[in-house]
Amino acid sequence: MTVAWILRRARRPSASARRALWAAAGSFVVLGLVCGATVLGLRATRGWMSTVGRSVHVIAFLRDEMESDQVSQLADLLRRRPGVARVHLVEPAEALARLRDAARPSPATDSWLNDLEPGYFPRSIEVALAPSADLPQRAAELSRRLRGLAGVAQVDAMTNGVARLAAWVRFGQRLGWAVVLAAGIAALSFLVSAVVRGREARRRQAQVLVILGETAGNIRLPANIALAVAGLTGAFVALVVLRIAWPALLAAVEGALGIIPMPAGLFLGFWESAVALLAASTFGWVLGYLSTPVPGWVDA
Amino acid sequence: MIWLEGVSYLRAGGPALEDVTLGVSRGELVVVQGPTGSGKSSLLAVAAGAQAPDSGAVWIAERNIAGLQASSLPYVRRNIGYLPPEPLLIPDETVLENIMLALAVRGESIDSAEADARETLAMVADSAWEGRLARSLSTGQQRLVALARALVGPPSLVVVDEPASGLGGDDRKGIASALVWARDCGCAVLCATSDPAFAQMLVDEGGRRVHLEGGRMAGGPAIGLVPTPAGFAGENASEDAESAEPIPSSDRRSSGEEPS
Fold it and tell me: Is A57-157 a CATH 3.40.50.720 domain?
């Protein structure tokens, strides 16, 4: 069979094969959405967890009058305390840089952030405690002591908030994996069922072509092409839907959790998208191969 | 063109063919007549390369297809027009598309295949069917379309199993004429029927009749205008099946046949 014939046959599937093809394309869209959302979701939670993972349990905001050597002495003092894992002195410039990094760029925030100056931010000391069962009590004790110091303007004990956020993120991850697993299994089942239906539609066609002397490769080729195109189309639609819907979905989740919006990782990159399209069309090609049974001999 | 040598074929219930030897040359029409269950369909399936014999050789052109690799079989089959006992058509495709498929497999261009398919359909059945889906046809009509698909081209070997089954007088005459046309085009035509009247119709047109009973040829081997076995297994035997050329006919050295 010539290329012209194969393309003609790939473009003219039977009614039942056409239905199976549409079902397969729909399954590819769902599968693409699940896989894409998984990648983007993991990226988002990694960002959230890195914030949580800083493990800052107590922040002491310092008065402007406090001299630099006094600040250094206080930091050294804190470092020597038992149960303190890390002490970090945050200068005003770093505090401003952190805010600019954390805020998602937009015309509204850009002008606001540009007006800010480091002088608006107080110096602060971040204290991370070594993890233990009584960490909240130790953080509370340290906060109480710091509040009693003359150079300290305010103390923020982050323990409860951080722990709560970490728990929510962990819960969200577990829930996300369960949803991904369920949706993935559902989409794959739908895809397999569409391929099985297509297989039944192609069985007789393959039997006829075997009698007529068509090679196994050419018998399978129209289904290979059709399902590869279905995979490519499904993956493309999924990428477009993710591009449109993901930022809004992520913003809603971040809003609900009270998390500062992340600056990056909203979209799949060019190469990630290219790999997804290639993988979907290759998967479609393989399914096309499996969906065409070619008998060696024909029942008389 | 085709020579079956000592072919045996087993089915679940026992042997369907036992040591059958039969030859059909180019430009020859052979009618295999026998009662239901005599092994006609098995014989034709083996002759068409649709089934592998359990023993014996099936020489088509210069190839013993019983010994060919599975990947080589399609190149032999595409030179055979086979009408199986059940007319295998693709139900969701039109009559014309079903007939054109045989030519598509042989690599003919789409336009040329369409013209040839129309011509053959007009010869065997009704041209008005060409746009109808195969599933909308009656079994008899499907049989005629499948016959048209077997004859289109025409291929060098035509193997038709009960082509007139369930069809009326005019259709039977049309089928007989089409088979004679294929023979006159130089095809080797092998036709099986359990209908003595239809067999006689073909014999009257110059066909050679052989009888099959209980999986055996009545009266011994039925060899027609075929070359010797040595000729089939000659020096070209190692060439690709794709490049096989039809064998020219040679001397008649037949036995067990009725005069036509």
Answer: no
